[in-house]
Write a structure and sequence with these properties.
Blueprint: H1 2-5, H2 14-35, H3 37-45, E1 61-62, H4 65-68, E2 81-84, E3 94-97, H5 99-117, E4 122-129, E5 138-140, H6 141-150, E6 153-160, H7 168-178, E7 183-188, H8 189-203, E8 212-217, H9 221-225, H10 230-241, E9 246-250, E10 260-262, E11 268-269, E12 274-279, E13 293-299, E14 309-321, E15 331-338
Parallel strand pairs: 1-14, 2-5, 4-6, 4-7, 7-8, 8-9
Antiparallel strand pairs: 2-3, 9-10, 10-11, 11-15, 12-13, 13-14, 14-15
Helix pairs in contact: 2-3, 8-10
């Protein structure tokens, strides 16, 4: 893990990164095979070795397995926190963390975010209720995401009241205090649209935060139903907030801390701690560059549970390695949406 931790977030070539990350993934495979009986059963039932030489040889766990079984590699008395997924119905994923794993996730998230916003903690406007993250022992994915990103800011301002309506006096006070300086704005995609951008557009006013750096995440299904594209979303951010620094990021409860942030060209980038592989939805064979398929996500951070290799229900496209116009090295991709018939589970899609 030290070799990954000491490497630049987006500075290694894909080939050099894969070498380091595969060594860590193999280490985690051995650990979980010894400490998680359910994982070991799955591993024994596959034809895969403990020492993978390529990403495609690392056993992928279907994300639905985390709903069906309690997958843990630690003793019950070592459980520090349980993260639950954001599914709309039925069982929810349970991600078991000990203190060390929770700390590792937080440190990785901070290091990734610092590469985008710098090391200084900026005044932060969260498009959330202040009571969302009050209970820290058991989190929804939405709460975990808000808490994780809140560590990047200071002078936190929660833009929504208890009835999920914009608290305009609070928002206006934040703008007045920080109008001519860099600030950080975070909201899950649909909530940012529904509870800030849309009301501002209806009133014909702008917050005039020209130096704001805007991060948003979560599913796009509700916005697609409203015929809102990512381009329109970004344009409305500039019109209603005054900033064109808008970054979407892709992540999930099953791999908290491993997030993929979009650059100024709209490409999602794999940080040093994580990577992706695209698989054919029919036969699960690795898909070539440019061909849509299921996204398999890898994380070096999953120590207390076997979440180092997960086959998601999301469809994406591998766009390239090392050659994004933004200059960041490593793999970059885009997400097209949820596989047909898959459960809606994005943090903002499932808010009700």
């Amino acid at each position: 893990m030290d070799s990954l931790w000491n490497a630049p977030i987006y500075g290694l070539s894909q080939q050099d990164k894969e070498r380091l990350l595969l060594a860590r993934l193999n280490e985690l495979t051995r650990w979980h095979s010894e400490h998680c009986p359910s994982y070991n059963t799955l591993l024994e039932g596959s034809d895969l070795n403990l020492d993978a030489e390529e990403y495609c040889e690392v056993l992928p766990l279907a994300v639905q397995l985390f709903k069906l079984a309690r997958l843990s590699s630690i003793a019950d008395d070592e459980v520090f926190k349980t993260i639950t997924s954001s599914g709309t119905s039925g069982a929810k994923s349970q991600i078991i963390l000990d203190r060390a794993n929770a700390a590792l996730q937080s440190k990785a998230l901070v290091k990734i975010m610092q590469s985008w916003v710098g090391r200084a903690r900026l005044p932060m406007l969260l498009i959330e209720q202040s009571n969302l993250i009050a209970q820290r022992s058991g989190f929804s994915a939405r709460g975990a995401g808000a808490l994780g990103l809140s560590f990047m800011g200071r002078d936190h301002c929660y833009a929504l009241d208890d009835k999920m309506q914009p608290n305009w006096p609070v928002i206006e006070a934040f703008v007045k205090a920080h109008q001519n300086q860099p600030v950080l704005i975070f909201g899950f995609t649909f909530m940012l649209w529904q509870y800030l951008l849309k009301p501002l557009a209806e009133q014909g006013v702008s917050l005039d935060l020209s130096q704001a750096i805007i991060f948003h995440s979560g599913g796009w299904k509700k916005l697609q139903h409203l015929s809102v594209s990512s381009e329109e979303f970004n344009q409305q951010c500039e019109a209603s907030i005054g900033s064109n620094q808008v970054h979407n990021f892709y992540g999930m409860a099953e791999q908290t801390g491993s997030i993929f942030v979009s650059c100024e060209h709209g490409h999602l980038h794999c940080p040093i701690f994580s990577d992706i592989l695209i698989r054919n939805p029919v036969n699960l064979a690795p898909s070539p560059m440019g061909e849509p398929g299921l996204i398999q996500v890898f994380s070096s951070l999953a120590q207390s549970y076997p979440g180092q290799s997960i086959l998601t229900e999301d469809i994406g496209i591998w766009l390239g390695d090392d050659d994004c116009p933004c200059g960041r090295k490593g793999r970059y991709f885009k997400v097209l949406g949820r596989e047909q018939k898959a459960e809606v589970r994005g943090c903002s899609d499932t808010f009700s």
